[in-house]
Amino acid sequence: MGKCDGRCTLLVICSLQLVAALQRQVFDFLGYQWAPILANFLHIMAVILGMFGTVQFRFRYLIFYAVWLVLWVGWNSFIICFYLEVGNLSQDRDFLMTFNTSLHRSWWMEHGPGCLVTPVPDSHMAPDDHHVITVSGCLLDYQYIEVLSSAIQILLAVCFLTHTLLQIIIQFDFIGGFDSYGYQPPQKSSHLQLQPLYT
């Protein structure tokens, strides 16, 4: 069982991506964040296609998956910028993650490690059917948990892309292209015999 070849390594990376995406999907469902739910669903479908392309040696599926991973890195970079409030992005006024359909935030905001949630009674800031809370004592704020989750997604995507690119470079014959036989010079026909010319 010793050595894991290139295809095995790609399957391990795809499996880790699938587990990370499913974990993220669960917590986005709990927080009613519809934009990440949609993106995670598309990513799960793309990972399954990438795994199929790896197992079946389907080059087109791997190219599709590589293009999707570039988009996925962009999406996760946006998530990092959103939660760290880079530029004009603000979590307080932008409801980008819920498509402006609800006031829900990240599930980790109230359920982070060590967080103490206390409701604010009789608050006039809360709309109907909502309540205002204060969260304190968190060991790690929810923004950093979301940033860490996106950073893991980016790391796995970059690992897949670099490993795939290295596999293509290793297998590429620079004279004959993807031809596994290498360069074959034209064969001389056997019916023509050339004799050296002596002068």
From TrEMBL:
Q: Which residues cross the membrane?
A: 34-55, 62-86, 150-170
Question: Matching Pfam families, A to Z?
Answer: NKAIN
Compartment annotation: Cell membrane
Q: Using the UniProt record, give the first listed, main subcellular location.
A: membrane
> In which domain of life is the source organism classified?
Eukaryota
The yes or no answer to whether the keyword Transmembrane helix is present is: yes
Q: Name one GO biological process term.
A: regulation of sodium ion transport
- Single GO cellular component term: plasma membrane
Q: What keywords are annotated for this sequence in UniProt? A: Cell membrane, Glycoprotein, Membrane, Transmembrane, Transmembrane helix
Q: Which residues form a coiled coil?
A: none
Bilayer topology: Multi-pass membrane protein
- Family membership, please give it: Belongs to the NKAIN family.
Q: How does it assemble?
A: Interacts with atp1b1 C-terminus.
| The protein, known as | Sodium/potassium-transporting ATPase subunit beta-1-interacting protein
